Amino acid sequence: MMGIKVVLQLLVFALVFTMLTKHQALGEQDCYGERDTLMQVCRETLRHDLDYKHPSVSCRRVVRKSDLACICRVLTDDDEKQISVDKFLQLARECGRPVIGVPKCGSITVPPPRAWV
């Protein structure tokens, strides 16, 4: 009898663990590392205090590899103190990776693609 009780407790623990792990996997995608890399490599292009500067080769490479829609979703107010979201969106378009399907990028409402023409 004691053996069955222990096995049932282990099964319940495994079930709860599986449910919690699956919930986390379905949650927000983790692209914070991509955001940080893009903000660092493309710093000269994204700066508030300068005119838009065309991206370097390394910046373009990072943009092409990054999930820009996810980065838009995780941009914080602190990030926006460091970079211009308008310039981020311009960078994405210039690199052929316009942000589509995300209503907001940081605190900025993303215009529909036809407004870019």
UniProtKB/TrEMBL annotation:
Signal sequence, start to end: 1-27
Domain Bifunctional inhibitor/plant lipid transfer protein/seed storage helical: 12-100
Entry-linked Pfam families: LTP_2
Claim: Signal is one of the keywords in the record: yes
Keyword Nucleus: no
Keywords per UniProt: Signal
Protein name listed in UniProt: Bifunctional inhibitor/plant lipid transfer protein/seed storage helical domain-containing protein
Species assigned in the record: Panicum virgatum (Blackwell switchgrass)
Lineage: Eukaryota, Viridiplantae, Streptophyta, Embryophyta, Tracheophyta
